[in-house]
Amino acid sequence: MAKGILVDYEWCSGCHTCEMACEVELTHKSFPEGHCGVKIHEEGIYPIGDDKWIDINMPIFTDLCDKCEERLNQGAAEPSCVKHCQAHVLTYGDVEDLAKELAKKPKQVLYCL
Ligand code: SF4
Ligand code: SF4
To answer: What's this model's pTM, rounded to 2 decimal places?
Structure first.
């Protein structure tokens, strides 16, 4: 069954720990400086009226992501970025199961790996 990562970006703090986890996990690869399998893109902070603000941190999985293939083949339960996200906004699993979670709330995205 296809695997994926569900991102609940409503609660992504923009801490960049997932980026560091990826760089360490794939340290044997030569990434372009400052780039790896996941990058946090930021939108905001700016006001949109009535005490509302745009403040979005969005993890983007890049083509440098190799899906933690070696790590998972060695028996790990989840990719390094997922394991090290202390806000628990990244969930790894079967795409069909994650799609059900996706339907439950807005401000989520589902990446198929
Ligand atoms: S996805 Fe998790 S680890 Fe990455 S920036 Fe957001 S909160 Fe931090
Ligand atoms: S799944 Fe693995 S390779 Fe892909 S971004 Fe996460 S840590 Fe990097």
So the answer is: 0.95
